[in-house]
Amino acid sequence: MTRTTTRLAFAALVVATLTLAACGDDDTTAGTASAPRTVEIEMRDIAFSPDEVDVQASETIRFVFHNKGAVAHDAFIGDEAAQDDHEMEMREMGGMGDSDGAQDAMDDDGGITVMPGETGEITHTFSEDDNLLLGCHEEGHYAGGMRIMINMT
Length: 153
Ligand SMILES: [Cu+2]
Prior knowledge:
29% of the residues lie in helices and 31% in strands. By secondary structure, the protein is α+β, with helices and mostly antiparallel strands. It has a single domain, classed as Cupredoxins -  blue copper proteins (Immunoglobulin-like). It has a 5-stranded mixed sheet with strand order 3-9-8-5-6, with helices on one face. The termini are far apart.
């Protein structure tokens, strides 16, 4: 009887220790291509939260966007010049059909659209000299500051 109790107590201790170890394994480890680090982002009307993310060189990050707002938001990764180009493309499209195949191919370079209540993902591997940010290019959102600064650490 006493022996069984001791064994049970030991088993409980082992389970508790394993649980603690699993919980401790969160944001401190750099993401790799085979095991990206997940960063959860909320999309609100009209902002990302957080609006800054620290990233290590050669780290692979899986950004998971949760749209908590009432309107569609998108997320596009690129440097400032790419953001400006993408903003122009999005405004030029302006609800017209997809008659321009070349433009469609360009729109496909890493942008996603997330509807209210839905979730979307972008996975990206960063290099040392990357100077990137994430922007939302729904009309007026990027100009209104809906962007995430990526800080290389
Ligand atoms: Cu937006």
